[in-house]
Structures are given as structure tokens and as C-alpha cells.
Amino acid sequence: MESRSRQETLALRKELVGSSCKLFFPDDPVKIVQARNQYMYDEHGNEYLDCINNVAHGKSEANDLALRLARQYTKHEDIIVVEQEDHKDPALAYANEVKKIIDQAHEKGRKFAAFFMESLPSVAGQIIPPVGYFQKAAEHIHKAGGVFIADEIQVGFGRVGKQFWAFQLQGEDFTPDIVTMGKPIGNGHPVACVATTKEIAEAFSATGVEYFNTFGGNPVSCAIGITVLEVIEKEDLQAHALQVGSFLIEQLNQLKAKHPLIGDVRGVGLFIGVDLVQDQEKRLPATTEAEFIITRLKEEFIMLSTDGPGRNVLKFKPPLCFTTEDAKLVVDKLDQILTGHKRGAEL
Fold first, then answer.
1. Which of 147, 70, 148, 76 is nearest to 110 (CA)?
2. How far apart are alpha carbons 192 and 98 in whole angstroms?
3. How far is CA 174 from CA 107, 117, 155, 169, in A?
4. C-alpha separations of 318 from 47, 55, 254 in Å
5. Mean pLDDT over all residues of the chain?
6. Is the pLDDT of residue 184 over 90?
7. Which cofactors is this protein said to need (predicted)?
8. Which end of the chain has fewer CB within 10 Å, C or N?
9. Mean pLDDT across the stretch 100-124?
């Protein structure tokens, strides 16, 4: 069968797929026909370096089950989730916000089932929570009769380098009540996982209602999940993520010293955010500039995306096989684009 052209595929997509499903590059979409390791290929054979490594299969079932577990175990309904905030003592301040929300809800007769948080908030702009925050937040939610749920769907499985799970960055004295996992557990195969305590699991089974998922626990998915874990261990990808990520952060910080558009570089392992700002003091998000940069990088065959409330944070979350050579290439191209943008602004 003859393959469709990019325009034919795009026309078919517009006909069959809802408009709410957005394209990454709507003005000039890329048709990816093949991928291997950290590279993707379009219909012309052009090789793109993948720094996005986004959702191969969204696994919302893991979070859905976690919420069901929490609500059944606690007999409460409400959920606390995180947005964003800035403070001199962030761990205490953020935890106090959790307590304030709980107190306000209790005054209205509401009760919380869970505090739900991605261990490293990605959509918020690649945020690294302050050490001690989870412990304090867990204390508040436990006193309110709820549980702490850690979402490791994007940041687990060795991505942070220093630890296998991102919640472990908080210290050895912290363990969530429920952990959700997906995406990397199957390396593109649709599989997700929920881990919890025996007590919470038994409270769920005590309902007499069987948990059913059409493909849940099937041997093929389980075999794939086990194989992925074996590859992570055999190829030492956790240590690799730390080594390459540290190098990339170092290189990006050198760019920060050179380009005022970069307001902050933050991250751990291969989870890194570059915060672009219009002004170093006011820190207004440089949204337009960020969009320009990822468009220019795409023209250089490098795929990168933005995130954060202002869509101004360059989001580095590449495959764990990403190399120092890949990192150097991205930084060099980014340097060229920032330099060109600066000269254009001066003119």
C-alpha cells in the first residue's frame, strides 16, 4: 500500500480527530514514521533528536485507581493538588498552604481522601520541591485522615539519577502511601502500575467489588514491564541519567551566564527546566521567545517543548539513552539561536 503524504495525513487527521487534540507544531507539523532510541525520523528520512520523549500512551488508569483506593480507605471524598508558589522558606510555606486548605475545608464540613502530587511537578514548569515539604504535607494530610499519593508517571524509573524514584529525593524518612507509575514502565507499551500498602489494598478489596481492567495484569504487559526494569539495571541507565543530566545542567548554566533571557536552570538527572524571562528582576515569562526557540530548534531537527503556567519553560525530558554528545549538540544550537535572537533584538 502506498504511504500517504504529509498533507494527506494532515487532512485525514483534521477530518477524523477532534480539534481539541493539538499538534506540537501546528504551523508546520512533522510526520514521524519511525523512531529508534533518542531519534525520530520523518517521511523523508530526516533524523530528529528527541528531547521531549512525551507520552507514548497516557496511563490515567493508574491515577484513577489510586483515587479509588484513597477514597475507599479513608471514606473521604476531597483531593488536594498542587499549583505553584514562591517563598523564602518554601518547604514550610507550601506545607502551611496544605494545612490552610484542610482547615478551610473542615470548616465547611468536607473531608480529604488524599494529597495528590507529582513527585517533580512537570506541567508546572519542571519544579524541584524543597526537601522536607513532602514530610510536612504528609503530616497534615494524615492528621486529616487522608493519604499521600506520589505520581511517578513521568519522573520515576531512574530518570532523576540520584534515586530510582523522585520522591526519594525528599530523604529516607519519607514514603508515600500510594505510588502511581506509567509511561516508562512499558517503554511505549501501554501499561501502568499502582503500589500501596497492604492495609490500603485490603480496605479496597473489603468492598466486595472486584477491580477489573480489560488488560489488567496480562502476562504480555507484565513480561514487558519486567524486561524494561532489567534493561534499566543492565545498561545502568539511572547512573547514565545522572551523568548526562549533570553535564547538561552545567552546560545550560554556562548559557545562563551568557544570555539574560535565561532566568533559571533547574533540574535533576534528565529532568531539567530552562526558565525564560523578559526581565531578570520582574521575571515576567518570555512566552513568545520560548515558542520562537522551540520552533527554531525544530528547524535544526531537535524536538523540544515548553511548559509552565506561562509556557516559558524549556522542558528537557529526553530518553534515558540520551548522550553527552546529544546534550552538547542541543546546547550549541540553543546558544546559536539565543545569540541570533539577541542580535536581532539589538538591531
1. 76
2. 28
3. 29, 14, 17, 9
4. 15, 12, 20
5. 90
6. no
7. pyridoxal 5'-phosphate
8. N
9. 93
Check whether 95 has a pLDDT greater than 50: yes
Q: What angle do CA 312, 314, 316 make, to 5 degrees?
A: 155
The rounded Cα 112 to chain-centroid distance in angstroms is 25
139-155 per-position pLDDT tens digit: 999 999 999 999 998 99
CA angle 196–200–201, rounded 5-degree value: 75
Q: How does pLDDT run across 217-249, given as a tens digit for each residue?
A: 788 989 999 999 999 999 999 999 999 999 999
| β pairing state of 262-268 and 271-276 | antiparallel
Q: Which residue has the cell 516508562?
A: 184
Count Cβ atoms within 10 A of the Cβ of residue 29 and give its class: 0-12 exposed, 13-18 middle, 19 or more buried. middle
pLDDT tens digits, residue range 15-27? 888 877 788 888 8
- Specify the pairing of strand 32-36 against strand 39-42: antiparallel
| Cα-Cα end-to-end distance for the chain | 52
194-197 own/partner pairs: CB under 8 Å, 24+ apart: 194/62, 194/65, 194/66, 194/69, 196/66, 196/69
| DSSP code string of 289-320 | HHHHHHHHHHHTTEE-EEETTTT-EEEE---T
Confidence of residue 53 (pLDDT cuts 50, 70, 90): confident
Give the residues across from 194 on adjacent strands: 180
What mean pLDDT do residues 70-82 have? 91
Residue 233's contacts (CB-CB under 8 Å, 6 or more residues apart) are none
Asked if residues 114 and 77 have their Cβ atoms less than 8 Å apart, the reply is no
